[in-house]
Prior knowledge:
This protein has 482 residues and is α/β, with parallel strands linked by helices. It is built from 13 helices and 26 strands. It starts with a strand and ends with a strand. It folds into 2 domains: 3-138 and 338-481, FAD/NAD(P)-binding domain, CATH 3.50.50; 148-333, FAD/NAD(P)-binding domain, CATH 3.50.50. Helix content is 30%, strand content 23%. InterPro entries: FAD-binding_MO (IPR051820), FAD/NAD-bd_sf (IPR036188). Its cofactor is FAD. Keywords: FAD, Flavoprotein, Monooxygenase, NADP, Oxidoreductase.
Amino acid sequence: MAEHFDVLIIGAGLSGIGAAWRLRRERPGTTYAILEARTAIGGTWDLFRYPGVRSDSDMFTLSYPFRPWRGAQAIASGESIRAYIRATAEDGGIMPHIRFGTKVLSASWADSRWTVTTDQGTFTCTFLYACAGYYDYAQGYQPDFAGLDDFRGTLVHPQFWPEDLDYSGKRVVVIGSGATAVTVVPAMAGTAAHVTMLQRSPTYMTVLPERDVIADLLRRGLPPRVAHTLVRAKNVLLTQGFYQLSRRRPERVKALLRRFTLAQLGDRAMLDEHFTPTYQPWDQRLCVVPDGDLFTAIKAGTASVVTAHIDRFVPEGIRLTDGRVLEADVVVSATGLSLLPLGGVELTVDGEAVEPGRTVAYRGVMLSGVPNFAYCIGYTNASWTLRADLSHRYVLRLLSYMARNGYTTATPQERPGPRRPLLDLTSGYVQRSLDRFPSQGDRDPWTVRQNYLRDVLFTPRADVRRDMTFGRQPAPVLEEIR
């Protein structure tokens, strides 16, 4: 017989471990397991191993609210984030509950339970919680470049970085201008002969200190949890305030970002050509440049930026549409990620396949018409964990309400109305996949706001009964509360 749990969590990354921590402390009698496809903990932070991999959010908001970040760097390395997640799981007694090397393939709902099929066997559960993020771990986005077979050098995608890649003394071209490219370029520049960042169009960048001076001061004089809470609040207010200013006064923010970048570069012509985007601030995520390391490499001459379009690959490198050839021994295709809803798990409810793109997001946590199922995604304009932790707390409130009232099922029931995309960024990796993700509506509880300050006030008090149909088994009676 399949092993049964009250709750199954998909994914042992930042979200999955946070969900398990909350579950163990707030519902200690609940049985659970975490199904993790990889053989190690950490999720994204175990997958990405490219040079310089680091957070693009400060660690005081990316870390868990219940476990103070004690690292020296506010913008931390992937290795230190992975160690932090593992230490959280070990200290919380979560490790024995993780089934490593267990990839979830599908989940079917029938008779008030989920039957979860994996490549290691079958499990059943009463409630299924997908904490697998929204990246496709099996493949990144790779454009179909003409002439790739002619290239005599090495092509690398950052998502699958070879451990034995030696780029010392070699000419490197990094295609892209997003967070990955901005990280890889200065990290490789100290070892490679030269690194060129080849971008089709510029990206907004902002320089942040790798260490938080205020955090260091507070941590020297206050208990860790108090200091962590204060720094977290400071950073939330700053980032949310800057985001709101960007949306309401974009021209003012453009001028500020240009001024900051010019102060780093000291070259107005370079600023105009390579660091002045055509879109509005926060139409795409801002790229964080810790301590201005990218600009330092450019000024030192170990890195450079070219803004142009690719014609094709040639044996010696990349030919641009203007006829120039960028010679390269190694090309890093930092061209973006592929998004995958619900970790690629195929859902069926009472024999009917669930297409996520046809559903509507309920409080940004559940799917319309899908019982006893939740998923976890973070903010697009703030640290992932801020929203993830709110999602965990909501799921636990729902489970507690069901237990108190003898309900065994909870199904969000959509109210008809206008729909709009779940994610509000114009980035290519988002736009390529929007139709695969649930939509959102135009009113609560069917909207997904990118506003942590609002959510942290209202989500913990949200009425779990609103637009939710509850059921009891084996009695067939359903109770609907509007």
